[in-house]
């Protein structure tokens, strides 16, 4: 969504992202890089209709050669905080003419705050809130190579989250929890299911991460 009604707020976030200093090889660093402020210049300049009309007159008299391009800034931020947050990590890279799987561990937290990555006018965040918290409840892990392998999952079994139901059905956000939703983690591989510790979950090579909104 492109917002042009308030240029002063265009690059503002709910929480100060400059205080993050995210650790390399972490989900926070991935989100920080994905939502960074970019400068569009040289061959990436933006077509400016206002500048073009100012220099060339009415739009119907403008040829493509006379269009005016200008430097600009671009930033992608979250404008609507979802009840369920799904993060898909890119676990492959180009190696010559082939694709190669990325096997290194990417750190991810039990509770993550999306506020530094949300626009200051995030639609479903109450005014004055500076946190948008999510609790981890599921992880998908892939073992193997780009050509073959096996998918397993870590899932948290917990009591029904009435707050999550309110978020899904009515878009309400009134909770004040800052701790992870309590529950028992299980590792699932085909028909094999066994309980595991949270430390085992957080040490996995995550491919997909599933969070539910707390606040």
Automatic annotation (TrEMBL):
UniProt-listed GO biological process terms: protein deubiquitination
InterPro entries, per the entry: Papain-like_cys_pep_sf, Peptidase_C19, Peptidase_C19_UCH, USP, USP_CS
UniProt keyword annotation of Hydrolase present: yes
Annotated USP domain residues: 1-214
Domain of life: Eukaryota
Keyword annotations of the record: Hydrolase
GO molecular function: cysteine-type deubiquitinase activity
GO cellular component, one term: nucleus
Gene3D superfamilies: Cysteine proteinases (3.90.70.10)
Pfam families given in the database record: UCH
Protein name, as recorded: UBP16 hydrolase
Species, as recorded: Pheucticus melanocephalus
Gene: Usp16_1
């Amino acid at each position: 969504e492109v917002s042009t009604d308030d240029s002063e707020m265009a690059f503002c976030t709910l929480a100060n992202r400059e205080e993050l200093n995210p650790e390399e090889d972490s989900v926070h660093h991935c989100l920080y890089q994905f939502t960074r402020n970019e400068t569009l210049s040289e061959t990436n300049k933006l077509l400016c209709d206002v500048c073009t009309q100012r220099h060339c007159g009415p739009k119907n008299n403008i040829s493509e050669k006379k269009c005016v391009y200008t430097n600009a800034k671009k930033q992608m931020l979250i404008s609507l905080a979802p009840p369920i947050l799904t993060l898909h990590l890119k676990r492959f890279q180009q190696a010559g003419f082939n694709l190669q799987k990325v096997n290194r561990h990417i750190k991810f937290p039990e509770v993550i705050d999306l506020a530094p990555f949300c626009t200051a006018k995030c639609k479903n965040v109450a005014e004055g809130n500076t946190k948008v918290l999510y609790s981890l409840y599921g992880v998908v892990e892939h073992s193997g190579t780009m050509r073959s392998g096996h998918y397993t999952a870590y899932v948290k079994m917990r009591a029904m989250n009435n707050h999550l139901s309110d978020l899904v059905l009515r878009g309400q956000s009134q909770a004040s929890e800052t701790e992870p939703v309590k529950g028992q983690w299980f590792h699932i591989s085909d028909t094999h299911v066994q309980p595991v510790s949270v430390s085992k979950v957080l040490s996995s090579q995550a491919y997909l991460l599933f969070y539910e909104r707390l606040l």
